[in-house]
Amino acid sequence: MPDGFARRNVTSLTAVLSAVSLALVVAAVRGVVPASLLPRAPDAVLAAIPTVNAVLSAVAIVTILAGVRAIRNGNVSRHRAAMGTSAVLFATFLALYLYRIVVEGTTHFAGPDVVYSFVYLPVLVVHMGLAIVCIPLVYYALLLAGTRDVCEIPATNHARVGRVAAALWLVSFALGIVVYLLLYVVY
């Protein structure tokens, strides 16, 4: 691979991409992005987004696990495809989530206060915290993998960071599904 800008600046690019991604999320959640900037989808589409995102999360869990299994079996091309698919699923999830947040705002928890305080809120906080921590880890692992030949990757932190990113990503996706179930199915 050529010695390009991205290859030489993986850490800096990780920091910039992470900061931009997190700023977009915070801006959307805090209502900084005006809904008038985006076209409004039909109500049925907006109502379907949480379910679509839960399905995307479940599929991402499967693709992450498939990627972990593939690399443990030495199948680099299958690992790369599975983790690339996981990243695309996450990007799709995030785009849909942010779109819905900007257009409709956050969803109010309709269950009892005791469930809100002792179940929903702790699950949501851990889910969000892991998602925030995962962003730079995933960017870093993807940038290392994307800027190196396969034979060079073992000499990088890709495997170490990737293991942590995959584990945290799995838990975050699973907790996201729990949040969905509490918001849209149970209550």
Number of helices: 6
Q: Mind telling me the C-alpha Rg?
A: 18 Å
What characterizes the major β-sheet? none
SS class: mainly alpha
N- and C-termini, Cα separation? 52 Å
Mean of pLDDT = 96
What portion of the residues fall into strands of 2 or more residues? under 5%
Shape: globular
What is the helix content? over 70%
Beta-strand segment tally: 0
Low-confidence stretches: none
Number of discrete domains? 1
H/E topology pattern = HHHHHH
Protein name: DUF420 domain-containing protein
Pfam families: DUF420
Keywords: Membrane, Transmembrane, Transmembrane helix
Transmembrane segments: 44-68, 80-99, 119-143, 164-186
Characterize the structure shown.
It comes from Halobacterium bonnevillei. InterPro entries: DUF420 (IPR007352). This is DUF420 domain-containing protein. The longest helix has 34 residues, at 113-146. The mean pLDDT is 96. The chain starts with a helix and ends with a helix. It is built from 6 helices and no strands. The protein has one domain (5-186). It has 187 residues and is mainly alpha-helical. The protein has helices at 5-8, 10-29, 43-72, 76-104, 113-146, 158-186. Helix 2 packs parallel to helix 4 (76-104), helix 3 (43-72) packs antiparallel against helix 4 (76-104) and helix 3 (43-72) runs antiparallel to helix 6.
